[in-house]
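Data deposition worksheet. Section B asks for the primary sequence of the deposited chain exactly as it was used as input, without tags or linkers unless they were present during the calculation. Section C holds the resulting structure in token form. Section D is free text for depositor observations; keep each observation to a single sentence. Incomplete worksheets are returned to the depositor.
Section A, Depositor: J.P.
Section B:
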Amino acid sequence: MISALRLTLFATALQLISVHASGMHMEMIEKLLKEARQTLAPDRRTAVFDIQGRLDGETLVLAGEIQSRELLEQLLELLRTKGHVTIKDSITVLPQAALGDSIYGVVNVSVGNLRGAPGHSAELVSQALLGTPLKVLKKEGSWYYVQTPDDYLGWMGDGFCRMNHEQIARWEALPKVIVTEDWGVARSSSQETGGVVSDVVAGAILALKKDIGEAFQVEYPDGRTAYLLKRSAQPFVQWLSEANATPERLIATAMRFIGIPYLWGGTSGKGFDCSGLTKVVYFLNGIHLPRDAGQQATAGAPVDPGAELEHVEIGDLLFFGSKADSTTKQRVTHVGLYLGNRKFINASSVPGYVVITSLNPADAEYSADRGASFLLARRIIGAGETSGVRRVASLPYYSGSDH
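Section C:
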């Protein structure tokens, strides 16, 4: 059953379908479905809720696509609470039936690109590292609409290996290694002179086949094998047991990426956008954050920063953007990791790489623009499994890595 809160939020809109269908207008239907989205699936980046309605005589016909059977049932239950109009459900529930049982995937290249539309020229909206598990929702041409473990949606044309239930279960059950070096190479032999199989970046995960002294023999999702020198990687279980998001570790991790190019949609050591940097820094210390700056701005616990950031602690996230006024809502557009002394590290489009910025006018790194656009701070350390802060160890997507 849906919550009383949801029913309350829908009370006004549902009154619209209490009238005879002949008295219903399209604007009523559009308002109803808009409120449905805002209540059940408000973030288009993380949930599919693309529903349209039309009148066919006295019947309200619903069509479009929706994320899951559960979400569809929630929508229909809301509509049934009034029951004064006949509803015909013609909604497609994802994953697409045409996908069959192959509704899973695992990223098979060092960095897989997610785009906003099915095409190589479409906007890069995010990336997923080698070994990241995916949900496959639908196919259009040679492109697949997928969802990453942080629920982010995007189109991938290649770079991942589709799997069915049996295949993904096998993959998840394999022991794993995680790449800890900023950038490295998997080779065809355990020698440094071996041929290159692929590049790898920090946070990439591969299956462990053998420990052979100075190297790990590893397996890719598509069955390729290679070797990683031990200086580049750790057994996943060991890494996870040692991962601890302390202020000192977070700073040390972030400082490794100084000078890495800015890349819109980037989430790897090859190139970051602002939230991609904070996400990877926290991930490499065992914490899973939402993808975008606006989403991260609701994670963790709020912090009253004080006039000169005196209440902000090292490792907190600082958010920037445009303040709310009488006509527009607050809009978060940038995030950085606090270093102390009113300084933070961030991936910035200006100057075009990961850099330290200051909010103190006396510092050489001072940015008046960032000072004017500062909005809020959030504390991730110690926030617990709430408000978008999750430990990697608690995620089912990665739990198979310690088998």
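Section D:
The two ends are 36 Å apart (CA to CA).
The chain has four domains: 4-94, 99-171, 174-241, 247-391.
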